[in-house]
Amino acid sequence: MSSKVGRQLKSRFAVPYACYKLISTRRSLIRQSGWIQSIRTSTPCSESGDPVPWMNYSMVELLEERLRKTHDVFEFGSGFSTCFFGQHCRQVVSVEYDRSWYDRVQELIPDNARVIFQPRDTDGDYCRAIAQCEQSFHVVVVDGQDRVNCIRQALGHLEPDGIVLLDDSDRADYQPGFAALADAGFKSLSIGGLKPGSPCRHQTTIFYRPDNCFGL
Length: 216
Description:
Elements: H1 3-12, H2 14-24, H3 29-32, H4 35-41, H5 57-66, E1 72-76, H6 80-88, E2 91-96, H7 99-106, E3 113-117, E4 137-142, H8 147-154, E5 158-167, H9 175-183, E6 187-194, E7 201-208
Parallel strand pairs: 1-2, 1-4, 2-3, 4-5
Antiparallel strand pairs: 5-7, 6-7
């Protein structure tokens, strides 16, 4: 094939060719991020297969950069993120409302992680599960049910330098959570991008105060 013909084909089929390059190029973003590997394994993971939260990859990179082994994490919602935080932090406690998923997660998590089972409800025991721990946390991840009430309950269980992560934060239903955190003196930083296995843009927001544990 002549170079001229090759250029003509690339021009005519520019979008399919670009998609091919995204998939086949070793240094492609969707390869290096783990997106391709996540499709192959049907799990949220890095390129090497390590578990990551089901958040956009830009947020995952920030977490990998800023998390410390001195951090204690609480999650509303559990899963591969629990494994990820267990690898990067001192301890992680999660609350889960789905019994079958709870049973599966128990087989995956590391020794420094534990999961509390709490059936789904609204403004009830689920959002108050964080109080069972009788401690404060550096990072609270809100990625489960009843998210606005989870945010409100989390405020009383944060370290002075603690932060809150709200996944899928572009949903209008979560705006009261933004307001509650703003009233408590938190600023926000929203980060968007591809999430493992999804072709769509997803957003996660970090809420933080001055002198926070992420240095924001």
